[in-house]
Each structure stands twice: as C-alpha cells, then as structure tokens.
Amino acid sequence: MRLSGKRVLVLGASSGLGKASAVEIAKEGGRVCVAARRVDRLEETVAEAGEGAFARACDVQNEASCKQVVAEAVAELGGLDAVVYAPGVSTFGPIEEIEAKDWHHVLSTNLIGVSLILNAAIEHLNTSRGRVVVISSITIDDSPPRPFQATYVVSKRALEALVEAWQGEHHQVGFTSIASGDTVSEFGLDQDVSKMIPIVQRWNQLEYLYGRMMEPVAIAEQVVNALAARETLRRIAVTPSYPDANAEAPDWGAAAVEHNRNQADEGAE
Predict the structure, then answer these.
(1) Mind telling me the catalytic residues?
(2) pLDDT tens digit string along 210-230?
(3) Strand pairing of 54-57 and 31-36?
(4) C-beta separation of 32 from 52 below 8 A
(5) What is the secondary structure of 103-154 as a DSSP string?
(6) Which CATH class is domain 7-268?
(7) pTM for this one?
(8) Which among 210, 208, 238, 103 is positioned nearest to 147, based on CA atoms?
(9) What is the dihedral sign for C-alpha 8, 165, 99, 181?
(10) Is the peptide bond preceding residue 145 cis, with omega within 30 degrees of 0?
(11) Spans of all domains in the chain
C-alpha cells in the first residue's frame, strides 16, 4: 500500500472528487479524516473508506470552523501528513449578471478556504514534510476563457497562484494542483436545465468539451499518485479521453444534461 499509515485530511468529502479521493486514499492504507458542511452525507464516505476513517464538520468559508477541523483531525490522527482540498462551486451565466454575494461565495469556497485550512495545518505539515493537493480545473487552460462561468474560472486561476505562493514560502511541504476535466458529479445540479443547455452547447461549439465525462475515481487516482510520489508533482492535468470515432456525437441538449444529472444522482445514492 502506497499510503500506509499516512494521516490525511480531506475537505469536501461528502460527494464527488473529495469523496472519491478519500476512498482511494483509504484503499492505499491512508488514515483519513473526511470533512464537509453536510455531515450527514459523510456517513457514506466513512463507510466506503472503511476502518479508521472518521468524519468531522467543516465550513471552509468560516475561519473558526477551519481551525477546529484541523485541530480535531490532528488530535485523532496524532499529526498530519497531507491535506486534500476538493470543495468547488460556480455560478453560471453572463458575467455582468454576477452579484457581489455570488463572487464572495465562490471565492470564499474555491480560493480563500484553501488558505484558511492551511493557516491551521501548515505547522503540522512542515513537521511531517507533508503534502497538499488542491483540485483545480482544466478550464484555466481554455482560451478564450470558458464563457458564462466567470466566477469559477477566475477562482481557479487565482488558486494556481495561491498554491505557488504557499510553495514559495514553505519548501518543506510539497504542493500539487490537479486540473480536472469535466467529471460526473453534483456540480451544477442546482441549476435549471433550460438555463444550462445553451451554456453547455456554447462550450461544445468552442471545442472545450470532449464528448464524455470522467468518473470521479479518475481524479482520485491522481490524488493518490501525488501523495505517494517520491518527488513533488507540481501540477497534474487530467481530461476525458475522446469517445470512439464511430460513436454518435452528443447533442448536449436536454437529454444529455439529464443523463449527466442522473449519473451524478446514482453516484450520490
């Protein structure tokens, strides 16, 4: 087992990439503290991760909550070897319609929360010469930027700079950002289908989509690779493989959006 005995705190572990990462880390022998706002949803993550995994509540937008979850994880684990930060939210729509509260919500979750957690965890990570893995997005490489998702793109580009800043000041810790391509998850499930269809179709016209979505485990495997690597992997980019050339091209209409939602719902059950 590549992570035998490693003490890992996983944020955003109630679903999607965070949940999948926690489970894969546990499979490789890691001792995992899983954390999220939705504590009730963490029970399933703990069950899948198995013996030794435990759950704690954390709102990454709240500084006191971030300090508390790190303290509780360290107390239970006896130290800390790694942090995995997976929370991510977005708005969808024209940039001129984004309100201040939406900017604050996205930046607090996707960017500032990383520093709030690391403020509390860095002393322990320096001691263990540990690792930090943050989930970024392949959208930061889209040029021009992916339209109608400005808050998300801005937050993820800023996240890359934040990781570099932390690495520059803390050489004893290895920092990795993983740029994830489109993945089956609950991301965007709170949006109206009729609103999302033209947005997704526009992304497809710009050739930002691959014709299929990845399973969360594809990213979780790279989280494990980053934590287990002999040296620091500064950045990993993962995109879906293109479907077979003879496969029928997706129309990215209502049926496609609903299909992806159904897949995400099945993964959350």
Answers:
(1) 152
(2) 988 999 999 999 999 999 999
(3) parallel
(4) yes
(5) HHHHHIIIIIHHHHHHHHHHHHHHHHT-EEEEEEEGGGG-SSPPTT-HHHHH
(6) alpha beta
(7) 0.92
(8) 208
(9) negative
(10) no
(11) 7-268
